[in-house]
Amino acid sequence: MLRTRKIRWLSGTMVLLAILTLLLPQALLPQAAAAQAQTSGIDAVLVADVSNSMNTSDRDKISNEAMKMFIDMLPVQGDKVGIVAYTDQVEREKAMLEIQSDADKSSLKDFIDQLGRGPYTDVSVGVAEAVNILNHGADPSHSPMIVLLADGNNDFNKTKGRTQAQSDADLAKSVKEAQDQGIPVYTIGLNADGKLNKNALADLAQQTGGKSFITDTPDDLPQILSEIFADHAKLNVVKLPSVTGNGSYQEVTVNVPNDSVLEANISIMSSKPVEVQLTDPSGQAVDLNSDEAKLSTSKSYSLVKLLKPQEGDWKLRVKGAPKDSIDINLLFNYDLQLVVDPIKTKSYTKGDKVDLAAKLENGGQPLQDNDLYTDMKATLVVKDVDTGKSEEQPLENTGSGFAGTFEVPDNHNYELIIRAEEDSFYRESAPITINASGAAGSGSQPTTSGGEQDKSFPWLPVILGVIALIVVGVGAWFLMGWLKRKNRGFVGQMVVEIRDENTGDKSYPQYKKLVSFRGRFHLHQLLQLDPELKETEKYVFTPSNGDRIIVRNTAGGTLEKSGRAVDASSGVELKNGDRLSIPLQQADKTILIEYLV
Q1: CB-based burial of residue 368 (10 Å sphere; 0-12 exposed, 13-18 middle, 19+ buried)?
Q2: Integer CA distances (angstroms), 411 to 51, 352, 435, 436, 481, in order
Q3: Which residues are registered as beta bridge partners of 357?
Q4: What is the C-alpha separation between 67 and 56, in angstroms, rounded?
Q5: Do residues 398 and 376 lie in contact, with contact meaning Cβ atoms separated by under 8 Å?
């Protein structure tokens, strides 16, 4: 379900995540002083399962570390955070707190450290209370969200007579409320004991427009949280080449591309003592307890925050244990909006052309630094509101904006969105509504005079007309059948992972909803049209009976279904729970897919 409330972009965050598979020392540098920062416009409720089952599914209290890191990633001022700890009832709760200083963040993190555990579990209780908190404490101008940390399983107190059906009904009610109010639920499944109910958590995220993640180690948290921030604000995450620790200082260059970047977070995970140094683009050492940068720590991570970093190359120097892997991800956010020029009229008919122009604005003023446009691409996303079908077309980059023309293909209503992006940037415009319903005017029918009543009835034209209607009707029946097959929709979702055959590493699972596709789609569309994976265009999916899907390799060849090689040239049927393994020849990668209804 798409969010119904307009999302405000995070207005001041560029996240650099340096993930080291090590633990930070208990005492690094002191907490930096508060410094001016921009609000990201987020109202978040963090929901944690604190039942006794988490002693095995979250034995290291990853949920606590995730909540604290989420708080540390937020700017110093302006955002609001609430916390819910639940079993089969709300155990502890902290109402929405507006963050105004580091002290407010410390108060929230202290509350998290005091959370205990208790018997029984009912996921619906935690989600319902989170929605209730947002109803009563959210800022209408902010973008609401819920982050749920749980294993997805229920354990009811039999003496209370609570049933799964009752819990499901209560959860469905909360999900409907979240959908109506545009509140996405992001789920982080904790799976240390392998008993995760991943389908329940994935379904909850999918229904509300969020995303679902799985982990059993705190090392995954920076990547997961960056994905959550990126999805919520429609940003791009950029992965840099990994570094392997050698026991000496190693340098990573962080390029701040322009002065529109307002904030940067550097997260470091460590199980052994590490040392961190930072220098600015002029080569000067940066005090991590100053107005330029500040440091916050927890038992499994350290986070360095840069405030309004100057343009240029920053140098991060990290000294860790030998052979430890350093995975680095960049998540840029700019203080920019993509604004579309007003169109001339809101009423069109089939064949009319709508001239479109869009540009980036900073603080309501056109962007002065046109260098940002250099490598940027823009796309017009057209949704036919009447049929639900969506199409895309490229727009021209003029060097100071984007331009193009939309020709109305039919007498329908349309919603237009312009999307601008490059490697580190992503923005969508507010939707434009095109009314081209083309309702035909009705005219009065002529009446006959008295003399005309004496004329003989025109039987021959009537008979020919009836025959013509029969022929047209039969043709229309066949045409409607063809169109129905062509525009047939899909149900469910696909869980997609990409495995690198050189290293054995797998990407985080991505849940791709299929309801927006009609008639057919190819695998490359699910992979966000990554050029490296272009050969996946030959794998085409079409809907089948009984909520099933047919996948064909249009170039011929085999793939693996549930561990067995099958001929995909004539089509392979997928039902709920089926898994595919598709090896790629040109990229040394394998696409792993699970179909869920």
Answers
A1: exposed
A2: 56, 10, 8, 5, 21
A3: 403
A4: 19
A5: no
DSSP string, 289-355: BSSSEEEEE-SSEEEEEEESPPSEEEEEEEE--TT-EEEEEEE--BS-EEEEPPPS-SB--TT-EEE
* pLDDT, averaged in runs of 10, over the chain (597 residues): 33 36 32 38 94 93 94 84 96 90 91 93 96 88 93 94 96 96 95 94 95 90 85 66 78 77 73 82 92 83 82 86 64 73 83 92 76 87 90 93 94 91 77 76 34 50 70 65 60 85 79 76 78 84 86 83 79 85 86 86
Any idea how long the chain is? Answer: 597
Q: Name every residue whose Cβ is closer than 8 Å to that of residue 270 and which is 6 or more positions away in sequence.
A: 20, 21, 22, 23, 24, 25, 300, 301, 302, 320
CA dihedral 546, 548, 549, 550 (to 10 degrees): -80
Q: How many CA atoms lie within 13 A of 398 on its CB side?
A: 10
Residue 17 CA to residue 269 CA, distance in Å, equals 9
Phi, psi values for residue 263, rounded to 5° = -155, 150
The count of other CB atoms within 10 Å of the CB of residue 199 is: 15
CA 32 to chain CA centroid, Å, is 32
Are the C-beta atoms of 190 and 151 separated by less than 8 Å?
yes
Hey, CA dihedral for 381, 43, 109, 316, is it positive or negative? positive
